[in-house]
Amino acid sequence: MNSNLAREGKLVRMLIVDDEPVICEGLRCTIDWAEYGVEVVGEAYDGKEALRQVEEHDVDLLLSDIRMEGMDGMQLAEQLKHKFPKVRVIMISGYEDFTYARQAIRLGVSDYLLKPVDIEELGTVVKGVVDSIRKQEEEGSTQEMELWLSNMARHGIAYGAEVPASLHGAQFRILATQLENFHERFGGMAAEQYKEIQDAWITTLSSSLQLHSLRTVSVFDHENLLITLVVSDVWLDHKVWDELLASSIPSLPGGASLYCGASRFYTDLSDTSDRCAEAHELLLYYVLEGLPILQSEYRDVIGVNRTLPNFDITDMVQNLVSNLFKQNTDEVQLLVESMFRFFREKGFLLSELLNICEELFTLLRQRLRKSGMTELDYGHKVKPDLNIYNSYAGLESIMMEDMKELLLLIDKQGIDKSYWIIEKAKKYMTDHYRADLKASEVAAWLKITPSYFSNIFKQSTGKGFTEYMNEMRIDHAKDLLATTQDKVFEIADKVGYKEYKYFVSVFKLYTGMTPKEYRGLSASQECGQVK
């Protein structure tokens, strides 16, 4: 989508979605979107209208509220994932709900921001998504079959392995080869020295295959991914192919080891692109068995028998947050080591492991933002390249580097024990909101002075104690008004208001209507949905 625009640095097309027109207008006008490489192409007030405009305007990026009438933000994200998978989504929510965040991440949402949205933070997130769109479009274009074939022809001539003009009756097979433990062994190598290894790689592999009268054309699709077209002018059955390949994957000078993914053989060159993808995918299975050659039959058998246990990512995030704020580097390292030990023992592929790590960092980032850390970069890093970090140890090392950066950032921002005091206070308030709770009582329970509690509570939440309690109680009252037949005075008592008139006045202050008016509106909306 818009690949030429992205490569030329032109504006990314964004749609704003919110069921309140004034919010859409505010988001459109508050930020100079062009400064972030964005053109706002429209506004939509519900999910169905958003889907129509996505198709009409060829949208790249969607900025959406999560709670809307009709099709809400989550349902919209799910529809986009199936119908327009290239569209990126940034979700905005007024609810600090961990479940919402996890669901959004699993639907492919790029980021999840909480209201009230900080304009600078939103700009930073949008810029990160724009950069990611442009980078992905540039990389995606290089994977097109025509470009792959032109590169292959160029390298084939350079290495004396030109494919003849006529290939009638020939058989083909794609090999994808990679250096083992690339990051650990070759990550810091000088360019000239590594070029010598690449030259030896192509020459040695080609010579080994030519011993069996197989011709080759090779191209580096990545510094650690060599794609080789193997050509046989005589018809070979499957068993013979396998025997030839098994004796043809060499070790390189200096003891560097290769492993290989081998596609099935084929006769139509138009299938080359699919066979390249097949061979490359097989490389992911190397970490399970350490076989030098991996073939599609192996993947099919392993895929049928593989069952992966659930990894408790919520518990891991909570433990990491706790130890990051405590600046407990040793414990953070032990947690990372235990996580990767689990992945090894349970046989996770590197791609599966990477997806879990991406989800973990997104949830971790959300939890850190809630604590007041506003200087987090978009994402935690550029997504690690599995051609470079092609081992458990490689991915573990980069994850630990990211954790050390977070430790330094937390130390720099000086977040202290007040975070944990407020977290305990919030839980206590949630458990006791039905009572006539006072700030002094919470302070006493925390064993701190009321003035200190009031000060750090305001700093952490941006709200005074009474305002925070009122918002919590009114939210519960709205839910009871919409879902029960309880009388208004009964609901007032249930949510912690002993005086009916005071409850009504507070409710109207926060919602703009009386409890009875709110109940009537909720009932009419429900009837409308039923119809």
Describe the protein in words.
The structure is a single chain. By secondary structure, this protein is of the alpha/beta class. It folds into four domains: 3-141, Rossmann fold (3-Layer(aba) Sandwich), CATH 3.40.50.2300; 145-305, Alpha-Beta Plaits (2-Layer Sandwich); 313-413; 418-530, Orthogonal Bundle (Arc Repressor Mutant, subunit A). It contains 24 helices and ten strands. The chain has helices at residues 3-7, 21-30, 47-57, 73-83, 98-106, 119-142, 145-158, 182-186, 191-210, 238-246, 272-282, 286-289, 296-305, 313-325, 329-346, 350-370, 392-413, 418-432, 439-446, 450-461, 465-483, 488-494, 500-511, 515-530; strands at 12-17, 38-44, 61-65, 88-93, 111-114, 171-179, 215-222, 225-232, 258-262, 293-295. The strands form two sheets. It has a five-stranded parallel sheet with strand order 2-1-3-4-5, with helices on both faces. Strands 7-8-6-9-10 form a five-stranded mixed sheet, with helices on both faces. It comes from Paenibacillus monticola. The modification 4-aspartylphosphate is found at residue 65. Keywords: Cytoplasm, DNA-binding, Phosphoprotein, Transcription, Transcription regulation, Two-component regulatory system.
